[in-house]
Amino acid sequence: LSNGSPSGTINSGTTETTMSVTTDENATCKYSTSAGTSYDNMANTFATTGGTCHSHSISSLEDGKTYAYYVRCKDAAGNKNPSDYTISFSVASSTASKALNRAGRYAGALGDFLVPSANAQTTTETAAPANSFFTGPEYLLEGTTEDGAGLGDYSSILTNLQPSTTYYVRAYALLDTGEVYYGNTYSFTTADSCFIATAAFGSVVHPYVRVLRDFRDRYLLGNAPGRAFVDAYYRYSPPVADCIVRHDVLKLMVRAALLPLIGMSWLALHPWFALLLLLVIPGVSATVMMRRARPRTA
After folding, report:
1. 224-245 vs 248-269: helix axis angle to the nearest 10?
2. Above 60 in pLDDT, residue 63?
């Protein structure tokens, strides 16, 4: 394997490119985005392959991101590459992306002042990939799992659960005779979530998301118009959040747009601080005006 392309940094604004590689004999090549994947377990085959020149079109590239693809091939005799051939490249950041990143850093600094624990979250949610919370456009209200057969202990992993929803679950055993034995029924309630803010900040437990959630609980859920707004938000926001979570630039734009709302929500939750501002700002403004109006002496 040789002549892997592209490499280095390609121009900003590039959303699609051609990945290519050369083999020293006729072969079929596959690739993966995970290092160490064997040829047989690679799900992606080059669109053009079978000879010595192999190529594949890659789309949905984003400015400021680095991409790595791991290639292995198999020849006519069935021999396979035992190790990865890596094709790695970056897409340059555009001026707009750099500006948004800078704005994101300023927003983070302000958030650290308002919410000192903003960078102190080390929970399962923050350790997971940013898009792990949004597992699909639909959220399941019911379903079944098959967890094995025979003697032993079994566990189930439930996915695509709807936020702020109570689920009732129970296990059952289906015997070879056709008899069914049901276990006890258990219930649990999933945590609620601000979909768009969670997608933008990457975690349901992020302090900014917590501020918006606290504002909702205190000022919106206690009255009919507020509840109607929340219901409409939960009905229509998941598809928007799914789009946000897949685009880093869009995340930065949404973070910047949410910052004023987060600030106003924080002030509403801390009226003593808002009152302090109302008392301090006029005094500071009056002092500045008096200094400017003071006549200068030669």
Report:
1. 150
2. yes
